[in-house]
Known about the structure:
Layout: H1 2-16, E1 25-36, H2 43-57, H3 60-67, E2 74-81, E3 87-96, H4 99-111, H5 123-131, E4 139-150, H6 160-169, E5 173-179, H7 186-193, E6 202-205, H8 211-225
Parallel strand pairs: 1-2, 1-4, 4-5, 5-6
Antiparallel strand pairs: 2-3
Amino acid sequence: MARVWRALFLAASLVLGGTTAGRAVPVDLELVLAVDCSGSVDESEFTLQIRGYASAFSHPSVIHAIRSGRYGAIAVTYVQWSGPFLQSQVVGWTLVNDADSAEGFGAKMAAARRSIYSGGTSLSGVIDYSANLFGKGGYEGQRRVIDISGDGINNTGRRPSDARDDAVSRGLTINGLAILTDFGGLDRYFEEHVAGGPGAFVIAAENFESFAAAILSKLIREIASADPG
């Protein structure tokens, strides 16, 4: 019965959250997935990243974590990034509240073309860009998280720690997935200069091939952290 009431509440919220009432739809988590598209990431490595995300969103453990929250729903968007002014929101804010919508979002990620192929690595740039996406999708999450995957340190733009501190001051959390192909200590760098906010963490992937397992673990942890229970 509780699930029935929750489903009815979400349905009503979707109606009221439109232009008629102008109210945001409540969700357990608003999540920005920011994927590295800098020059160090070739096409095969990019494809491995996206397949990892698509696979994770169809995994029963991720769907169970989503359904276990207070609202049984999260809002997700997908961003590609490289330099300070090279970011693109390629899949807009999407409500994910069951297996079909989760798999649908993963399919949208897989179908979206890569729009950035070069540029430096600006972790500060993607933090600033992603922070400004919240509040613009029609959702209101109990937690707001920027999830950054990358294989390099910040080499252009302002210091990532400054961007992180600004984002954290706005109540955001930044998590990292460090791909250790070019920088063996990148996970420690992410911990010191990128991750921040309530419950922030960093997960390391030894290479692009192990990315799928790392992203699955990270998504489950992020979504479970949004469950008040």
